DNA sequence: CTGAAAGCGCTTACAG
DNA sequence: CTGAAAGCGCTTACAG
């Protein structure tokens, strides 16, 4: 049996489609008696109006595009959870895409959103779009889609686009200061490619803290990987094997931390006795197990909530100036 | 500037809407010259046809509903990843919902899917629907929506509905046998409420293996929690504090394992020296760190892939008999 | 090979 | 308060 339509309901209620529509939307004037009768029949038949037809007719849509690079990374899982918490309440539909950090998939996701005429996009870029051409291209695509966009987590400095970011600079800066305060001077850092904005930002937090304390930075202690565990693991092995190695290491995201801890445990060493670790992001498993690493906490669920709120706000006020929400991080210190 | 329509393209190309439509869909006959011209103009204008209008017109949809209870649990994150891998290739749109294990949200997700006239649903139930009334209700809802459904992971035995499940029974059964084979006789198990089908299934794997080996099962070693870490933690504390405690413990999902390991590490004890642990599901973090627990591996990404394949197949062959895919698990043994 | 027209299931001025 | 009609942006028989 195919789906009922508004026409079926109208017929059965002995009214016109228009009236049924008014009842459904609670719009216009409908006499109480008519309304009741129509509602009754709708209920009886478990009728629910087609979102597709409604969207076409109204020229709007209830869909929000959501795209993240690694949907199986709990960090993004939590963001998504924060988002759904609010979309659910607002009757918004989430179209989810996963890009595996590939530009091509990023592109396809945006095409999909365009075809579906989404009302807004929650976007964590797959790559950093530092390449001039890629960047121009991306900006053009957003121009074409022409709906509100909120960038999450990875700030690629798009003109006139809202965003929600963590204050990673501050997090790393404070973590570094905390280590220095605890007497560490030989501090290493495992970061990603320092050409990339995200990595640069974090690196600056480190450098600033070190310079302010008048502590020289040793080139050999600065490792530039790619934010993934494997790379971090290999870099960490080298670092840990150095003759004169750091007494503390800062890792710049949760994957990096894991790579480091793996290299460490392979040597039969552990934190914080053999070396101190200060990581970015909570790692739930380790925390549960009482692992003594220190971390900079970032509330991903909150990021999700803020992002969708920003988007909804922008949908309501398309003309308002660009807004960026920067979420503070928090140091969780176990032992330095 | 609002979106272009097929009419704009038609006008500019000097043809009718029908022709443009044929070009877009590669359907019907269009002269090569016309086709080329139309394509040219489409490209120039970055035109992409409205999925909404197309869906309404064709009476179909490109959307698949995806609903899981805990989107920030990496297990479901991986399932989702497996799903997107295939939907991306088939130009299917994923509408994601998160239910937090709440029946009410489960219900709302299905309503949403109905309104959006999705073509199919990938469904992990929020609750087990053992309650007769709830169950009837659910079946009725699916009847109303009347599109293919594939249940994932949690088998609630819906009549005539496809599903993809792991062979948890076999996993636990083999794990238990492995423990017995290594000489353990005092084996505990941390499971969920044994009234629930999921838990019962796992429990049976345990019981069967023990009985076949002629080993008596001690009531006190059987803990029934709820598949969450906190509950497991509390139960584990009691278990570990017993005078005559087990030498090995089986934990029935990743959360349960964490709760157990937490209770253990709090006592200053660790696996496998103080007690052996055999868990269901890999825990990436622990593995990376070389933690010596044993686990039953379940390939969640594969579950995602199989589920969407089953759904696509069912969409193509609506009349075919019910199919269930049961994925084998695999023992990963470190030290028993 | 191409176009005019009807239709998908709604919404919304407009008229009464 | 209610309905007839036009329109949203497509697709698809049908006729030529």
Would you write up a description of this structure?
Helices cover 47% and strands 16% of the residues of chain A. With 336 residues, the first copy, chain A, is of the alpha/beta class. The first copy, chain A, has three domains: 44 residues, 434 Repressor (Amino-terminal Domain), CATH 1.10.260.40; 132 residues, Response regulator (Rossmann fold, 3-Layer(aba) Sandwich), CATH 3.40.50; 130 residues, Response regulator (Rossmann fold, 3-Layer(aba) Sandwich), CATH 3.40.50. Chain A has a six-stranded parallel beta sheet with strand order 2-1-3-4-5-11, sandwiched between helices. The first copy, chain A, is elongated. Chains A and B meet through helix 4, helix 5, strand 2, helix 6 and helix 11 of A and helix 4, helix 5, strand 2, helix 6 and helix 11 of B. The structure holds a DNA duplex (16 and 16 nucleotides).
Poorly predicted segments of chain A: none
Q: How many strands, which pairing sense, and closed or not: the largest β-sheet of chain A?
A: 6 strands, parallel
Q: What is the first-to-last residue Cα distance of chain A?
A: 67 Å
- The percent range for helix content of chain A is 40-55%
Strand order of the largest sheet of chain A: 2-1-3-4-5-11
Oligomer: homodimer
Rg value of chain A:
26 Å
Q: How many discrete domains of chain A? A: 3
Strand runs of chain A, count: 12
> What fraction of residues of chain A sit in β-strands?
15-25%
| Largest interface, counted by CB within 8 Å of the partner chain's CB | A-B, 57 and 56 residues
Shape of chain A: elongated
CATH architecture grouping of the largest domain in chain A: 3-Layer(aba) Sandwich
Please identify the structural class of chain A as seen in this structure: alpha/beta
SSE string of chain A, helices as H and strands as E = HHHHEHEHEHEEHEHEHEHEHEHEE
